[in-house]
Specification:
The complex is a heterodimer. By secondary structure, chain A is of the alpha/beta class. Chain A has 13 helices and seven strands. Chain A folds into two domains: 6-36 and 109-224, Rossmann fold (3-Layer(aba) Sandwich), CATH 3.40.50; 39-105. A five-stranded parallel β-sheet of chain A has the order 5-4-1-6-7, sandwiched between helices. Chain B has a five-stranded mixed β-sheet with strand order 2-3-4-1-5, with helices on one face. Classes of the chains: A alpha/beta, B alpha+beta.
C-alpha cells in the first residue's frame, strides 16, 4: 500500500536541500489533529449505562443523519437525537439514552497545545486554514476552546455543503487561502482525506503525532527561526 | 571564495513508496527520471532538461532516509503512532 505520509517527508527534505518553501498555505483538520476528547471517560460513561465502550460512536456513526449533519442538512442536535431510539433499548429508556448521549458528548475536551504552537508558528509565514468535517456547532466549539482567532479561515463542511474527501472542499479551502492547490500542505488524521488531497496535487500528511507535523512544517519553522 | 550553487542529494525511500517519492521529486525539480539501474532496478536519477543532474533516488527495503552529502545526519524521520481514536463526535 502506498502511504501518503511520504509526501510530507518529501516536502521537508526538499526544503532542506533547496532552501525553498514547497507550500504557501497550511490546511489543517480539526478533530483528531487539534481537538481531542477523553476516550477513557467516554468509555466509563458507556459502561455506567451498561453498554460497551464505543457504542455511542458506532450508533451515531451509523445514523442516516451522520452525513446530512456534516453537510448542512440537519443540526448536530438532530443527529444526536436520531441515536436515542437505537440506544433506548440497550440502556432501558429513551430518557436514559438522552442522558447517556448528553454525558458522552460532554466528556473532557481539549486542544493539543503542541499542535497549536506549531500551527501558530506556521501561520506567521503562510495562511492557516482549518478544514473540518463539522456540524452546526463548530463555531461554538472553537469559541469554547478559545480557538476562534487561531486560523485565518475556517472551512466547515456544514457551511459549504461538502465534506472531505470530496475534492470540492479542498478546492474551496485553497481558494480561501488564495494559493494553488499544489502549493498547499494538507494535514489530517484520516488517510482517505490525505489521499484525496494528494490526488489534487497538495502535499499531504497523515497526522499521527506532533513530531509528524513538525517535520512537515520544518521549511516554515526554520525560516521563522 | 567558492560559492556552492548545487548540492547533490541522494534520496532513499522505501520500495513501496518509491513511485510517489519519485513523482514528487521530478515535479518539484522539473526533471524526469532516468531508466532504472541496479540489480533490482533500485537506482534512478532525476534528470534536468539541461545542466547537471543533482538528485538521485534509491528504493530501499526498510525505512526512509535522506543522504544529503553537504549536511549529513539530519534527514531521517521516524513516524510515530498515536491512539487510533481521537474520541468524540465531530464538532
Amino acid at each position: 500500500m502506498t502511504s501518503p505520509v511520504s509526501s510530507g517527508v518529501e516536502a521537508a527534505d526538499y526544503a532542506r536541500i533547496v532552501g525553498a518553501r514547497p507550500f504557501a498555505s497550511v490546511l489543517c483538520d480539526f478533530d483528531g489533529v487539534v481537538k481531542y476528547q477523553d476516550v477513557a471517560e467516554q468509555a466509563a460513561i458507556e459502561r455506567a449505562y451498561g453498554v460497551e465502550p464505543g457504542t455511542v460512536a458506532r450508533v451515531t456513526g451509523e445514523s442516516a443523519l451522520a452525513i446530512p449533519a456534516l453537510t448542512g442538512l440537519v443540526t448536530r442536535e438532530e443527529w444526536l437525537a436520531s441515536a436515542v431510539p437505537v440506544l433506548a433499548g440497550p440502556v432501558g429508556s429513551a430518557a436514559r439514552a438522552r442522558a447517556l448521549i448528553a454525558a458522552w458528548v460532554a466528556a473532557r475536551t481539549w486542544a493539543d497545545r503542541k499542535v497549536l504552537a506549531l500551527l501558530a508558528r506556521a501561520r506567521a509565514r503562510v495562511p492557516l486554514v482549518l478544514v473540518s468535517n463539522a456540524t452546526s456547532e463548530l463555531a461554538a466549539h472553537l469559541r469554547e476552546l478559545e480557538l476562534h482567532d487561531a486560523f485565518d479561515h475556517v472551512v466547515s463542511s456544514y457551511e459549504v455543503g461538502v465534506a472531505k474527501p470530496d475534492p470540492r472542499i479542498f478546492e474551496i479551502a485553497a481558494g480561501r487561502a488564495g494559493v494553488p492547490m499544489e502549493r498547499c500542505l494538507f494535514v489530517d488524521d484520516r488517510p482517505e482525506n490525505v489521499k484525496a488531497a494528494s490526488a489534487l496535487g497538495m502535499t499531504a500528511l497523515v497526522y499521527r503525532a506532533p513530531a509528524d507535523l513538525e517535520a512537515a512544517l520544518l521549511p516554515l519553522l526554520e525560516e521563522a527561526s | 571564495m567558492t560559492t556552492v550553487r548545487r548540492v547533490p542529494a541522494f534520496v532513499d525511500r522505501p520500495r513501496e513508496r518509491f513511485a510517489e517519492a519519485a513523482a514528487f521529486w521530478t515535479a518539484v525539480t522539473g526533471t524526469h527520471l532516468s531508466p532504472r539501474r541496479g540489480d533490482d532496478g533500485e537506482f534512478t536519477t532525476s534528470l534536468p532538461g539541461s545542466g547537471d543532474a543533482w538528485v538521485k533516488l534509491q528504493a530501499v527495503r526498510d525505512g526512509a532516509a535522506l543522504d544529503r552529502r553537504a549536511r549529513p545526519g539530519r534527514g531521517t524521520y521516524r513516524l510515530t503512532e498515536r491512539d487510533p481514536e481521537a474520541g468524540g463526535l465531530p464538532s
